Amino acid sequence: MSDVNARIGKPWRKPPLVQRRWLRVLLLVGFIAYLIAAFLTIEVNWSRVYAGLERGQKFVLAFANPDFTSRSSDIWEGMLESIIMTVAASVVGIGISIPIALGAARNVAPLPVYLICRAIIAISRALQEIIVAILLVAIFGFGPLAGFLTLSFATIGFLSKLLAEDIESMDRVQAEAIKASGARWTQWINYGVQPQVMPRLIGLSMYRLDINFRESAILGLVGAGGIGATLNTAFDRYEYDTAAAILLIIIVIVMALEYLSGVIRARVQ
Amino acid sequence: MLRLDKLVKTYKTGDQALKAVELEVPEGQVLALIGPSGAGKSTLIRCINRLVEPTSGKVYLGDVELTGLSSGALRRERRRMGMIFQEYALVERLTVMENVLSGRLGYVGFWRSFLRRFPQSDVDEAFRLLDRVGLAHMADKRADELSGGQRQRVGICRALIQNPALLLVDEPTASLDPKTSRQIMRLICELCQERGLAAIINIHDVALAQMFVQRVIGLRFGAIEFDGPPDGLTPEVLTTIYGEEDWEATIEAVEDEEASA
């Protein structure tokens, strides 16, 4: 109380994040030095860029003149395959994700189950889609089956992790009230937990559907079927106008999905 | 009817929330549990239905020793103990009716509850209870559309539809305005009387407790400091429970209340 007089009339500043002054200066100088050094290591072959500009220009110009017609049956088939792959993988992936998410939430599952489910999630997240797709194409051969399995696998890591985190941050008391009535574990999940995480589950599922569609275009490049395969063929034949048409369709579908998921998420709040 | 025998709860952090609490509640008695924050009131209530596992000691409900039960048997015994929560603890995204019917979960199978096909007798009872607390017209509203007082009424219905022998009530009036607080306390006490229920009510508001209950327990640092009728709460007693403070105003308020009533 007494030293308050000593503080009156003196300015106040927020205490700095790093308390020691020398460490603060060192960190800043070190960061700037690193940035400069990093930029100096970038090597640009300007003559190669000049040559490439023309190709790039052709590519961009193709967007002004996309060719939807001459390969229309290929595009249509690829698109249909992608959509089937996306929807099937999303449904299967989400279906598997929900029990794993329950197992990976510490406030719902016992420790051994928790560790197993977290391990599954970690594996799914550590393996990048392309790597999984290459492996699965090697096992199952070219085609949408490999793509479907890859996307299902990737969905598990994404959805289980985020859903588990939502379950862990739910309101404990609401769930406790259900437990206090003498409910079974399954009833407790259905009445105490599910209503609390439902909006997040629906939102994440829509988002994952969107991601899976975009990924399906990439997976085709490594032979896992879908519109990506058609796109790859178009690039190989230097048919930039057809490639542009495919990319435009993908953009439109992704935007439509984005809009749709926005509407649905607003509804379920 | 309910008996606590040397009930001890020590949290992992080393805090001793309950120190060998001995308590006996006869059939049909409504009892208020008062004491400062952190005295162990909530812990005591939660140790009875084992939402919190007691460290040692025994809890008897009738002849059944709750502390030794397997999880399945505990589940069945929990049906006999209705719980009413601070801040209501309704599942906010479920309807009022679903919240009330969730009190029957201990009695119906999973698929029935999953499909919301409760027995007709449960549905009828839910409507009767909602009507008793004046909320029958709200049955299909979502719980988060209700006001605080309305939510607590739904919480009361949820506890009563269990057809319990004992009510565990944890700060029922926290975050309610003074008038609603009294209405809720009155409702709980009336319903207990109508149904011959015993109840343990945790409550901060000493004056409110004195107004409605037959017996008051004062808890301090996890030990019972006072056990007696509400008018036994003298300034000296309140000082041993809560610490030094001017208590005259608190007690006077109650006397005025009784005079005007």
What does this structure look like?
The complex is a heterodimer of chains A (269) and B (261). Helices cover 78% and strands 0% of the residues of chain A. Chain A has 269 residues and is mostly helical. Chain A has a single domain, classed as MetI-like fold. Chain A starts with a helix and ends with a helix. With 261 residues, chain B is α/β, with parallel strands linked by helices. Chain B has one domain: P-loop containing nucleotide triphosphate hydrolases (Rossmann fold), CATH 3.40.50.300. Chain B is built from ten helices and ten strands. Chain B has helices at 41-48, 71-78, 96-101, 110-114, 120-132, 148-160, 178-195, 206-212, 235-242, 248-260; strands at 2-10, 16-25, 30-34, 56-61, 64-65, 81-84, 166-170, 198-202, 215-220, 223-228. The mean pLDDT of chain B is 89. Classes of the chains: A mainly alpha (269), B alpha/beta (261). Chain A binds chain B through residues 171, 173-174, 176-184, 186-188, 190-192, 195-196, 198-199, and chain B through 49, 51, 75-79, 81-83, 85-87, 89-94, 98, 102-107, 110, 113-114, 155, 158, 162, 168. Chain A: Residues 79-261 form the ABC transmembrane type-1 domain. Chain A: This is Phosphate-import permease protein PhnE. Chain A: It is found in: Cell membrane. Chain A: The chain crosses the membrane at residues 21-42, 83-103, 115-139, 241-260.
